[in-house]
Amino acid sequence: MIYNNDIELYELLYYYNEEGEEGYDLHEVQLLEKIDVARVEKLKLLLHHKDQYIAYQTMLILLAWAIPEGFELLDRLITEKWAEKESFESHRLYHEDNVYDVITHALSISTLNGKNEHELYPYIKHFLGLYGKHFFESNLKNFLLKKDCKPLVKEIERAMQDALDNRRYYQASQLFPVLVQYEKQTFRKYIDIFDSLINQDQRIVYNIEDARKLL
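Above: the chain sequence. Below: its structure as tokens.
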């Protein structure tokens, strides 16, 4: 597909108009309840755009809408290690690539559009395997808390330990309440470790409090 101008491309990726709300925001497009079939077909073609960032953003929409082609591109992104070659979601404060966390949010939205969360386990397991070395803001934590991820408890604990080993102390602490939610006894196992790390990052306190509330 050849777009006549950048405006047409911009409209396709960012325009939303639903329930009296109108504007330009990719996240709002992901959350649309009425998914236009013609738009889906145009977005499928856009997955093959020569600009990988445009293909990536298109993927985020199709993932959220639970469209199979979006998952096919995600498989490619992982297999071909796109995120190892360029940054897709540079964080506004920490300047690390938050790409896998943003993708997790799209996967979470897909469950609102009929995707079974168990089908997402392979992706979540893969992201947990990257957790110790890559930046994750909070979407993965929220997914693990809100969805039934008890079958992934071993991977969750391993990811938390990897983050500790790599001195991503706050990021490690984000998985503390997740782990406690599924296995209460882990609170005693790790509380002293995270208490001792508060002086490294005061935000750890909030995750300790979240974990304590789950006891």
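Residues 169-182 form the longest helix (14 residues).
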